[in-house]
Amino acid sequence: MPDLTPLLAFRWSPRAFDPSTELDLEEAASLLEAARWAPSADNLQPWRFALGHREDETWKRILTCLPLDDQGWARHAAALLVGAHTGDDGRAAYDLGQAVAHLTVQATALGLHVHQLTRFDRAGLAAELDLPDDIRPLVVVAVGRLGDPYALPPELRDAETALRHRRPMASLLLG
Amino acid sequence: MPDLTPLLAFRWSPRAFDPSTELDLEEAASLLEAARWAPSADNLQPWRFALGHREDETWKRILTCLPLDDQGWARHAAALLVGAHTGDDGRAAYDLGQAVAHLTVQATALGLHVHQLTRFDRAGLAAELDLPDDIRPLVVVAVGRLGDPYALPPELRDAETALRHRRPMASLLLG
């Protein structure tokens, strides 16, 4: 396996978050700044974000739109961030993906972990956050410090400590 | 401005690439490996890639599908990579965006620079690379080492050395 920079090699998506740590304002600002400086087609920057810190009003509105079984672990993350995009073509979603990836790299640099969720009640979240029609929420990003995997319910614990898998490289290459 | 990890802070999208350096096989493998380990919804990994090294057959096929004014500078990059996705929803494009962002971070770690292009002849490229109907090319990524900005045509030189701009943070935050 080729060498990867540690900020990528050590990145993974946990469900065990430490329920006692918070995201301070400096950390939150640097995560959003990382997203802000991502590249985008024609520099349109089609990404928009809503950030809720644990127990605040925005956090509650985001949390209630997640599937119940995800709420169980996601509520322990220090913050929940909604990633949304303007426009309705694939390029806007693509650029949002880049921005959240940059945010994730910055989170790793800060010793934080990220777990993204794309299965949630989009219409409900748009209503809860009073989003205009042209702002499309696509992802909810749980951010926090790693917690104790043994505090997870048994059915999640195994996945937490399992080996990670990806398709073989050859299957990704065209032509 | 909050601190960013150097791999993000020093990233930008040049047009001046050094026409004499090549991308070696180890570098190419690590770029693709970075993309391969990106996160994706349900671990579907909807990204697919075609990589052309300068002057090889794949490179020629990719280059001819770029707008003429982009061909002028993109031909000096060490490699041209097509990023495509399976599926037709925004989540697949989003995940491709994450994968290319991870590749870009790895490129920065290797001392390489990346410039992405989303304006190209998609149908032409799908035909040139003989892509199946369900593989949708979305981006062409020029990768290489920084070159001399004074070797660029005058109309590109100013953009190359201009300050970078982003929307103010407040305009990105919802609610």
Structure description:
2 copies of one chain form a homodimer. With 175 residues, chain A is of the alpha+beta class. Chain A has helices at 6-9, 25-36, 57-63, 68-74, 90-109, 122-128, 154-161; strands at 47-53, 79-85, 113-117, 136-144. In chain A, strands 1-2-4-3 form a 4-stranded antiparallel β-sheet, sandwiched between helices. In chain A, helix 2 (25-36) packs across helix 5 (90-109). The longest helix of chain A is centred in the middle third of the chain and has 20 residues, at 90-109. Chain A is globular, with a radius of gyration of 16 Å. Chain A starts with 5 loop residues before the first helix and ends in a 14-residue tail after the last helix. The model of chain A has no long low-confidence stretch (mean pLDDT 96). Chains A and B meet through helix 1, helix 2, strand 1, strand 2 and helix 5 of A and helix 1, helix 2, strand 1, strand 2 and helix 5 of B.
Set out the fold topology:
Two copies of one chain form a homodimer.
Chain A: H1 6-9, H2 25-36, E1 47-53, H3 57-63, H4 68-74, E2 79-85, H5 90-109, E3 113-117, H6 122-128, E4 136-144, H7 154-161
Antiparallel strand pairs in A: 1-2, 2-4, 3-4
What is the gist of this entry?
The structure is a homodimer of 175-residue chains. With 175 residues, chain A is α+β, with helices and mostly antiparallel strands.
